[in-house]
Amino acid sequence: MERSDGFGASGANDGEFSRERNATAREGKLFGIHAGEVDSSDINPAMDLDPDFLVHMVHAEDLHLERVADSGTPVVVCPRSNAVTDVGLPPVSDMLDATTVALGTDNVMLNSPSMFREMAFTAKLTDVSTVDVLRMATINGAEIAGLNCGLIEEGRDARLVVLDGTSPNLSGAKDPCRAVVRRAGVDDIKDVIRP
User: Fold this and answer.
1) What does the pLDDT look like over 54-84, one tens digit per residue?
2) What is the secondary structure of 118-146 as a DSSP string?
3) pTM
4) Angle of helix 176-183 relative to helix 130-137, nearest 10 degrees?
5) All residues at 6 or more sequence positions from 52 whose CB lies less than 8 Å from its CB, including other chains
6) What is the pLDDT of residue 111?
7) CA–CA gap between residue 115 and residue 140 (Å, rounded)
8) Could you tell me if 30 and 2 are in contact, meaning their C-beta atoms sit under 8 angstroms apart?
9) Residue 177, CB-side half-sphere exposure with 13 Å CA sphere
10) What are the residue ranges spanned by the domains of the chain?
């Protein structure tokens, strides 16, 4: 555990993860767990572990969203993965009303780990604004991971992806946020700045 950033559990119905949860707590590391991907049966047992974040929550019901709101537990949604596995799409808009929501790509066996593709997919298939989608992919993800980046402001680490506004995907865009979320890709990256 001392060499990792934390532990990601597959789901409360897949096993007992209290040992791993205790280990992450001892080391001050993150503990995330998949919940509500196939059905809602593992959401409450996952939340009983007091995770740092939940993953998926496709089948979250009102009582689960209330519990998430009360506990302040963030959620990482992976809509492309959920579509590929045909489990449905998470209620992203309802989750945003309840807690901090970030975008994830789940795993590389199903989809490429492209946040650009995840943003476009989410914006096109959910009722969430492009501003919220961009926030989910940047600020919210950094916040959940405990990183001091994701937003350009004094005191934050300079971890930036600079996009080429003159690229075919982005030139002439009247709404830059919408263009980045719905059209940008790796070919539009001009520079990456990291400390």
Assistant:
1) 999 999 999 999 999 999 999 999 999 999 9
2) HHHHHHHHSS--HHHHHHHHTHHHHHHHT
3) 0.94
4) 60
5) 6, 24, 30, 31, 32, 73, 74, 144
6) 85
7) 13
8) no
9) 11
10) 57-148
